[in-house]
Amino acid sequence: MQAIVYYLVLPFIYLVSLLPFGALYAVSDFMYVVLYKLLGYRKEVVLTNLRKSFPEKTEKEIEQIASDYYKYLCDLFLETFKTLTVDKKTMLKHCYFSPQALKVFNDLAAENKSVVLVMGHFGNWEWAGNTFSMQCKHQLYVIYHPIRNKYFDWLVYKMRTRFGTKLIAMKDTFREMLENRAELNATAFIADQTPGPENAYWTEFLNQDTPVFKGTELIARKINYVVVYAKVKRIKRGYYEIFAEVLHDNPKSTTDGELSEMHTKKLEQDIKEQPEIWLWSHRRWKHTRPVSTVKEQVTA
After folding, report:
1. Could you tell me if residue 292 is inside a domain?
2. How far is residue 275's CA from residue 268's CA, in Å, rounded to a whole number?
3. pLDDT, tens digit (0-9, with 9 covering 90-100), for 186-234
4. Count of domains observed in the chain
5. Domain of 120?
6. pTM greater than 0.85 (yes/no)
7. 126 lies in some domain
8. Does residue 298 form part of some domain?
């Protein structure tokens, strides 16, 4: 059954990837009407997340952000397919480094320093990976969750590795990072996913009690790679600029929770500036803080 679904959908995916950008975004506009206006895909999840994150905003403002988010979500979905066939020159025209960000990575490469790269589901993180692999001296590794459908998993793997990026399954992250220590590399962690409540670091994020994966911080401290935070800002439809800054150049010297607080607050600031390009349909706040972690963090 998985193979049947895959081969039925695959021609459509390739057709979309071959569309010129104008036609691609016309399809996206149609998808927006279907997804938001007709189906209301996860609409209550999005609206609830927005209301709790921005209690100071009016209902009209919340609904406008939600509408803009769905337009962006459709763009992001189709832009990802574009990776299958887009050429390097076009890719770099649509997603590029700020001069400052490129200098950050060039300087670290000159010093032969590998990197833990921290990002959120903000802007087109897929395109950012492509651009990084084409323009930076570091070998990029991206942590990922394999998809259950092995055919679509292969397709996503093909898209993400087409320009030189390599993937690491989440369960193998630390082992493979140790194995790769001899090369100059950057390992990208998408750090705003939802971990289990008991093993998370808890903080306030967008006015809500929020669990944060400890793995990013723990690995950075153990392996002592420079921690760099990256932001993928949407400049206009179909165009993104990547910004980057060093959060810490000696992670092993940090205290528990320090790095998690740093990258979480950076992402929060970015979301407040461009709320419509973060992944609001994700159930980010489905867990409540366990009493045990309240006591632990108060004691710490």
Report:
1. no
2. 9
3. 999 999 989 999 989 999 999 999 999 999 999 999 999 999 999 999 9
4. 1
5. 2-284
6. yes
7. yes
8. no
